[in-house]
Amino acid sequence: MENRVACAVVSQTSSESVRLPNNTSIFRAELHAIMLAMRLIRKRKEKNFIIFSDSMSSLQALNGFKLEVDLIQKILKDYLHLTAIGKTIMLCWIPSHVNIP
Fold it and tell me: Tell me, what's the pLDDT at 66?
């Protein structure tokens, strides 16, 4: 059976979703969603952002600089660029499926 995977990013004013290749791991899908959030931040004029994720493993991989994962490298590169131009980005873990508005 084929595993279909997608990811999404949602803000107060927009949302974006992407269908990923079949059998993409959930870990990679969660990282891809964080990449989408970075892309959204790049386009925005605001300076302060919080990325909420329910993927503890993705946040731990970013925090531990798991550079062997290509998506981690891309996210960290985006993060460094965006903070260098004056944006503040916080990454925040939230528990999943607990009806947080």
Answer: 84
Instruction: Map out the domains of the chain with their CATH numbers.
Output: 5-93 (3.30.420.10)
39 within 8 A of 17, measured Cβ to Cβ: no
53 close to 59: Cβ distance less than 8 angstroms:
yes
3-state secondary structure (DSSP) of residue 39: helix
Q: How many CA atoms lie less than 13 Å away from 68 in the CB half-sphere?
A: 0
The pLDDT tens digits of the residues spanning 15-56 come to 899 999 988 999 999 999 999 999 999 999 999 999 999 999
Query: Is-contact 38 81, C-beta < 8 A?
Result: no
The whole-angstrom separation of Cα 43 and Cα 37 is: 10
pLDDT of 12 > 80? The answer is yes
This model's pTM is above 0.70: yes
